[in-house]
Amino acid sequence: MKKIVVVLLVLGLILSVVGTAFGEAALSKDILEDSPIEWTASYEGQTIDFDVAPQKINGITMFPLRAMLEEMGYAVKWDGASRSVEISKDAQWTKITIGENLYFKNKMAPTSLSHAPVLVENRTLVPAEFFPVILDKGLEIQKNHVAWYEEEYAIHSGKVKEITYGEKGEITVLIATDLENRDPDFDLVIHTSEESTIYNVALKEGEFIHCVCSPIMLLSIPGQTGGYILYK
Fold first, then answer.
1. How many domains does the chain have?
2. Residues 57/64, Cβ–Cβ less than 8 Å
3. Based on the domain organization, do 82 and 63 belong to the same domain?
4. Beta bridge partners of 56
5. Do residues 49 and 141 share a domain?
6. What's the sign of the alpha-carbon dihedral 40, 41, 45, 47?
7. Mean pLDDT of residues grouped by 10 in the chain (232 residues)?
8. What are the strands of the beta sheet with 84-89, ordered from one edge?
9. Are 142 and 164 part of one and the same domain?
10. Nearest to 73 by CA among 128, 141, 137, 121
């Protein structure tokens, strides 16, 4: 009788582990949308070879971490016990944990981005805005190619006041950068398009968003600039 009980307990444990493994695999498949995005990328003119393709996960465009960072000269250390990644280069440091939407920047209080880090094919993926917001990388986007640079960029935040859609995929977003001031001097027009912008937020009026933008701004009223990544 004791042998039967032991066998049943062992079988139950095995089934539990297998069930958990398959459950996690199913969850990973559920959050992936369609097929991997056919992005290409470069850093200071050098092509980045992805070890896993960028993905759209829960509507958010995510890029593989290690391939990008190693091309940029960062040390990347994976800790399997805590499911975390430690990233460093000179004075820069950050640590991220799979499933936690908390991103550290040089020991400062953590900030949230559009999505927590995830594992796909045993590779860590992070939302596109991680590289400019946390690592201060400038960028340009053209036809699914992201060119990263050690150059300036700008981040603007505000509440969406108006969205205008063009005939060729252009989307113009008017945001209020000062929510308590109705003066148009505190508004900003952000020009985006399907070919040059990553939309990591569902655009709608009244939504508070952030935008990784070109550092160049037209001195009009309101001011105008180009947007590369929109996120919440």
1. 2
2. no
3. yes
4. 61
5. yes
6. negative
7. 38 36 35 71 95 93 94 95 95 95 90 96 96 96 94 94 93 88 83 95 95 90 95 95
8. 75-79, 84-89, 92-97
9. no
10. 137
